[in-house]
Every structure is written in C-alpha cells, then in structure tokens.
Amino acid sequence: MDRSAKPESFNSHLDWYSSKVNSVLSKPDKADDQNQNQDRIIYTYQTAFHGVAAQLTQQEAQLLEQEDGILSIFPEQKYELHTTRSPLFLGLEPHDSTTANVWSQRLSDHDVIVGVLDTGVWPESQSFNDTGMSPVPRRWRGACETGRGFTKQNCNRKVVGARIFLRGYESATGKFNEQKEYRSPRDQDGHGTHTAATVAGSAVRGANLLGYAYGTARGMAPAARIAAYKVCWVGGCFSSDIMAAVDKAVADGVDVLSISLGGGVSSYYRDSLSIAAFGAMEMGVFVSCSAGNGGPDPVSLTNVSPWITTVGASTMDRDFPAIVKLGNGRSITGVSLYRGRMKLDTKKMYPVVFAGGNSSSPDPSSLCLEGTLDPRKVKGKIVICERGISPRVQKGVVVKNAGGIGMILANTASNGEELVADCHLIPAVAVGENEAKLIKHYAMTSPRAKATLAFVGTRLGVRPSPVVAAFSSRGPNLLSFEIMKPDLVAPGVNILAAWTGELGPSSLATDRRRVKFNILSGTSMSCPHVSGIAALLKSRHPEWSPAAIKSTLMTTAYVHDNTNKPLEDASRAEISTPFDHGAGHINPSKALDPGLVYDIQPQDYLEFLCTQKLTPMQLKVFSNRTCRHTLANAGDLNYPAISVVFVENTNVSVLTVHRTVTNVGPAVSSYHAIVSPFKGAYVKVEPRILKFTKANQKLSYKVTFTTKTRQPEPEFGGLVWKDGVHRVRSPITVAWGMLI
Fold this sequence. Notes:
With 740 residues, the protein is an alpha/beta fold. Helix content is 20%, strand content 25%. The strands form 10 sheets. It has a 7-stranded parallel β-sheet, with helices on both faces.
C-alpha cells in the first residue's frame, strides 16, 4: 500500500488498512460471520515495506485493487526449502595451528546478527553453545517467543532471538495440528538447525555423522549471533509469513538475512520475497538466498533480483566413497553414508537385479516406487534403483520392505556423474550415470549377475574440486539478461552441520536413529555459507553497504579448481560457465581485502527497475523514491558482472556499459585493465588505467562491445583490474539474440 496516501482522518496506518479491507468485504449474514470479518487481516507490514496480508475472496481482492492507495495485490504463494569441512576448505581456519588466520575472531564479530528464515532451531545443539560470548548488543530489539517445547531459556547469547510466523500457513491450510507440529521456534524438520549452524554455529569438536566426516564443526562466522525466524512448516512456507518475518527481522535489527527457500520466478513487482528483500536492502541489510535445486536445466533459477545475493552450490574436496564389486570382476566407486546393522560380507557375492528395462523412459519398478517391487523377485538380492520421483533414501526402504538386502542407486541423465551421499537405512551405494549403465547392462544380460557393496569411510583431498553441483539451478536470468545470475557458488554438497533431535538423519518417519549432526546437500546449504561470510565482512567493515559486500564476494571469487583447471560442471563433466557458477566460487581469504568495490545505493536499484517497463504504481510497490532516469539501460546498473545482449533483428552492432569502482584499498594506487578476447566482438575498456589518490575515491570507466561476427552461442570471459596486489574480476557474458 502507498503509505503516503493515508488520509489525516485516520489515527494510524493500521486503522486505514483495516478500513480499506473492511470496505470491500461481503456483508455478513450472521453475527459469527461478522466476527470472522474482523479477523481477515492476518499481518501488517510496517518496517521494510508497507501493507497488509488479508484473507479475501477473489471478488473482494478485485474490488480492493481498485481502491485509492492500493499499489498491488498478489495471491499467497507457497515456497519450498532448497534442500565440518567447509571452513577449512574455504580457508577460514588454518590447516595447522602455526598458520596465521586473517579471520581470527575479534570482539566486533560478536556484534553481527544473522536472521535465518527457515524451520526454526533445535536449541540444545552444541552448535548453539554461547560459552565465551559477550553480552547481546544493546541495539538488538528481537524477542524469544515461547511455545510448546521452547522457553525463554532456549535463547542465549548465541541464539539471541526466535520467532514464529504461521498465520499465512494456517489461513491457507486450515487448523494447526498441535500434535504434528510445534507451535514454537523448535525445529522438528532439521533444515533450519542445519542452516543456522552453517551460518554461525559455535565450534564443536568430534562432530560426525555415524563416524563419517569426523572433525570440528563450526559455522562460517562462529562468533556471530543467530536470530531464528520460523516460516516453514509441514505444509510448506507461505509468502505472507515470509514477508512478515523479513519485516520483523529488519525491525529487530539483523545485519544479514539468510533465506534458503524459493518459489519460482515472477515479475519483480509480483515477487513478494523480492519486494521484502528490497525493503531490507534499503535498511542496510545484506540478503542471501539459495538459487534453487532445478539444475542442470537452464533458466531454472529463483531469487534473481539484483539486490539479492543468489547462491548456487558446489562440491568440496571431501567425499564418502563406497565400492560396488560385480561378479564379472569389475569394481565401481560410488558414495554412501550407510552405517547400520545390516551388513554385507565383502568377500561374498549376492544376486543383483534390475526391475526396469532398456527403455530410456523410467518405469515405476526401475524407480523403486512404493508398491512396485515384487518380493518374489527381489528377496535376498541387491536391487538397482534409478533416481527420480521419490526421495533417494525412500527407495532403499521400499527395497528393504520387499525383502531386498541392498541397493545400488543409479544416476540417470538428469544427474550425470554427480554423486550425493545419503544416510541410507539399508546397505546402499550411489553411482554415476555411466557406471549405472554398465551395472544395469550386466544385471540384465548375465543370468547369474552378482555383486557386493563395501563402505570405505571419509576421503579428503578429492580432485578436482570444487565442481558445480548438477542440481544447482542455472541461468541465464529470465527477467533481466543484463543481470548475471547466479551471483556465485559455495559449498552445498555433503555438508555436515547440526541436526534436530526430532528426526532421523534420513528424514524418514520410519528412521528411529537420532544424531546430533547430519550431512545434507542443496543450495539451501550453500546459501548460509555466503550469509556467514557476509557477516564476517560486516564485522570488519560495518560501513559497507550490502552491495559493497556482495561486490567483494563476487570480484574475489575464483574460477579454477584445485588442479588449476577451469571449474567443471558435474552434470556433463565439461567446463562450467557463468550461467552455472556466476562470478565463481566464494573465496573468503581474498574477500577481506578486495581493493575495489562496485557499490550500488537503493536509488540505483530503483533506477534499474525504472528500465524494466514497470508502471509508476508498480514501482511504488518497492519505494516512494522517484525515477531520475540516470541509467541508459539495465546493463548500466553498477553490477560486479557484465552481461550484454545484441538483440535479434536489429542493426545494433555497438553496445556500451558504464561502471564505477570505489577504492577500499591503499589510498594511492593504480589499476590497469585486462580483458579476455571474444570471437564475436571487439572489447574496449576506457580508460585502461585507473589512478586513485585517496581512500574511498570513486572512478568510472566504460566498456564498449563491437560485434565482429555474431555467434550462435553466448560467449564468456572476464575483465580484471590489477594493481600488483589485488585482482578485481568481473565475469563477462556476450550474447547475440535471445539467451534462451
């Protein structure tokens, strides 16, 4: 709603909002209905943005949209969650105690508060121990809400706030089931505990999952505070609850928001999370969101707004090998986190069976879906199950219930060679697509096909790594090609972090095991890595804007793995592109001293929106600021990445983009530009040298692209500014015609 349109006759905005909503409600027939009408407003938003969430019929919503002061109405939307070693892999702690660590804790680290929007928190986890932490900053205005299983004592100097938001969930799904869920910040799902601990968990020695990944678990910013905002429930995460949580988190005083969920792509002005994040950014809050798990399909990203840091997922140099030994003498390496009572003798061979056929399209039996396996055919055998439709660990339960003694989980074309380890309830090994084809062929063509499974444990120093995860959602950015997405990638495969005491590590109701830590994969896991490192940067540079922090993370990211080769894409074992990895893999050790930053102020983001053909009313959804038309086009937003598109069926052969960098390094410094060559275009940077004479000085440059030969596919490269110490890199994408 347009806050400035409130008539003076109303004492408060809430009175005005209520009057507006009540004016369109259908007239009640009974007194009971009259009372229901009074409860139609479920939230009012007053800090990061302004408006209400209300229960309306479609007819009532249409009437309300015509009222003065109403900027936009959009329906409730359901969002989904995007489901140890990473600090060491990221260089956040030394490999040995004698190595200096630039990120060693300072008192200022304790002043940063990260809001985590998720499924709540399991407060008893040692990851939320507050030993040695200073008192909660006086500026903090949050609360510790209580309820079933959660008291004031469950908050401390580490978990400084915990709130719940469920009015939208209740309105959409009906009466809350107190028996199935905690009406409190307590986390029964595990996802929220895992992400919160990844952001800012305290150090816990001897952390492991059933012996796997043994070591010290710690968050990215172990001295930062956590505020848990529970917005996700058994029935999903609802947009009105998410917006209410963002609004309250900003009012509470968080510095960073970590949001590991998404709900598809809508126009900027129709995307509730985008609108809420814009308001948070205006208030100086850094917002990090997961890119989604829709990969390797192109254009599968969510959370693509330029004021959001969009995080994809990559592997680390640790895995959990397991071996499939076939009766024909072949040994195939896969992965597994199995550690259970059922054991297979590695010196003995067991019959192996595949219920599917040669068809490229999967059938229910090949996928081991519930009720599809014939116990007569699988009893006492190792069963090959293809990935897809049902959860990976659930397939093992289906095999077990049908009498099978083990499972080989087979990747298909959509997963490629990427291996994700799972805590199975039956001896099981996951294998890549190519190996899966060999095993299936052997099982279908050999009358006495046999195999056994062996579990190796934890292996470190895996090469190559990192690799972009196959499931990580891909660009290009459907809404604005000029804004490259994702922004960067971070560890999101096989991540060890704290877990709920309410659920087993497989997350299946039938899993009676209870663990203190669990290993999960997803962009949900990569997002909190970035949130935590943003918190560290905020503690070192409290004056930096959210855009400056994002710029630092992007321009210092690396694009080569630990074999010094370009980052690979797990889905096709080829070199990945900025559509897959964005600016590259997060590199905290370099981010502390970026040299230059690309800063963007709230007005600049509005100017970007002014290039997106939004109406004045649609622009007002974001801000009461007005367009000054300072950007010639969307590509001129001062983004740390450069994307240009030569549109089809036009005579345009020259495109120019403008950028401004701020010197956050030595006062007197000189940077020179190095730009990669492109087959299809000449690239000219002017000026090629930037000479700074003082700290925080801003200098501008332009990059001109002139078409040489139109290319059928986008081309990728980079622009690097170097001063002998710093390398400030921006990825470049050049495309001819539509990118999709």
